[in-house]
Amino acid sequence: GATDSDHLARPVVESVLQEQGMSVIAAPRLPSKSTEMAPQIAAATSEARDLYLEGRYTVAIEKLEGLESKELPQLLRSTSNTALLVEMNLWLGALEIAAKHDERATSRFQLALTLDSKAKLDGAFWPPAYVTAFEAVQSQASATATAVVKSIPPGRLRWDDQAKKQGEPFQTSAGPHYVLAERIGHRSTARKISLQPGVVESLTLELSSSTSLISVDDAMSWYQSHPGDAIRAIARTTSASRIVVVSGDRLSLHDDSGKLLSRVRGESPRVAARLLFPRQQPTETKSVLRRWWFWTAVGVTAAAAVGGTFYFTRDTELTGTFVTGSN
Prior knowledge:
Blueprint lengths: L8 H11 L3 E4 L11 H16 L3 H21 L4 H17 L3 H14 L12 H12 L4 E9 L3 E4 L2 E3 L5 E4 L1 E8 L6 E7 L4 E7 L9 H10 L1 H12 L3 E6 L2 E6 L4 E6 L3 H8 L15 E9 L8 E7 L12
Parallel strand pairs: 1-12, 2-8
Antiparallel strand pairs: 2-5, 3-4, 3-6, 6-7, 9-10, 9-13, 10-11, 12-13
Helix pairs in contact: 2-3, 2-4, 3-4, 4-5, 5-6, 7-8
């Protein structure tokens, strides 16, 4: 269950700073990236069904492929979305048959079966000829190929629904596949590619830097395995000078280079906060009451395994309004 330390974030930190005579502004929580995809896929396939019944096969294909292209990084990020990708590829395969694009239909059915070898085409809706075409693809023996994938700069890699290591060759089935590369503070890159039988395919995915603010679930996930990368990305996208990580009964204070400045563990929330944030003394040129410290609670993850909170601060004068959001 939740402990006092789990709720250390906003109330305790703010009260400690207020006791020191500082002004505290809490900005809105950043949105989570774990957006539920099922409703979007259900709405898209429902529309595709209507278009199919109207004989508008090409329009239905374009709409589904547009959604796939837009949401592919999100769909590949979690194995919980694999079934949605399978459903989308089954729909696209059947629609390609309707549009008399047999090779494209085969590729889509292959991709659905790569993601789920037990996938089935709905015989209650689709014509028997479509089901027969799908079963023909299903009965084919899969040839093999070898792939080597890396990203620049190095990040996390997913091949279909499996994690892969940078630059390590692995054997897989020939034919179509999905690949995803991501790194905190960078735009994710996802593609659909096709491998030829018996060929060694080397693929390099380039990740461009992003100035968009980072969701807390991504930040905490990366902090567990690559703390320096996570801290530097947060600092770059927020112009923060100090970042505080609250995880369980531990508070960690980092500078914008990722360096750990201080850590407190096992203390009560209030004692821990006071140890990290000692009372500030006013100076002749600027009193504490005139100094603005901006703390933003980036949020709390729903997943207990990587739960935590991030704060960042900017010690600066402000003449306008500080708003948290994507650039």
